[in-house]
Amino acid sequence: MWDLARRAKDLVSCSEGKLMRKPLASRRGSKRELLRIEGRAVEVTMRLNPRARRLIVKVHPSTGEVTVVAPSQRALDRALDFARGETPWIARQLARIPQPIRLVPGARIPFQGIERTVLRGERGNGPVWQDEAGNLRVSGREEFVPRRVLDFLKREARKALEVRSREYALLLGTKPSHIAVRDTASRWGSCSASRSISYSWRLILAPAFVFDYVVAHEVAHLRELNHGPRFWKLVRSLVPDIDAPQVWLRKNGAALHRYAARKQA
Ligand SMILES: [Zn+2]
Description:
The chain is an alpha/beta fold and 265 residues long. Helix content is 33%, strand content 26%. It has helices at residues 4-9, 73-77, 79-85, 87-96, 145-171, 208-220, 229-238, 243-252; strands at 12-15, 18-21, 30-37, 40-48, 56-59, 66-70, 101-102, 108-111, 114-120, 128-130, 136-138, 178-182, 189-191, 196-200, 259-260.
């Protein structure tokens, strides 16, 4: 999670080529409650955003995250009731979300954009490794397999993202202050005014040209914290094609959110 100091400074960041301003709300301006929807307890995040015109409820199309945005503190106090009134709509949106793919033996997952199968195994240096065919082998007890695969993917993501970020930053004669890898629902990457870059670990599931583009995009923000012509020139100096990866993310990005270690409630 963002700490308060960083959050306050982090007014400008971006994702997938859009400039976004973070909500002006502080932590006090956001809260979470559980809402009963068709017998399930669904977590609802309520956020204050003075730029909103009215109460709006949103359901993230891939993660199922339910958010209510409120234009004022007064509206924020009514946010849960508002969401309750929208329960049938929320239930319909949740029903449309593709089933999560658990990281159990037999699961097919795209690792660096190539379909691999999770298989059991009893050798290797760590609990998870790639065999000669490129499949992911996992040792140890069956019930720990999903967690181990998830840890492996996050670790590989962190390594690859750090290496590529530093490499691109060097080419642009700059350096990030910090690189964070998280499980963000709505952004593949973001770069703050304090030169801190944050990525989604799920980029390790995407093909290399997509992975490289997101890194190039965020690293270029270290030099240009905007989306002007100079910014895009920097991105193009790092990756040859910026259109194909953007199209790929729009088409396939949501599907990368399906992979999960746990069964969702
Ligand atoms: Zn950007």
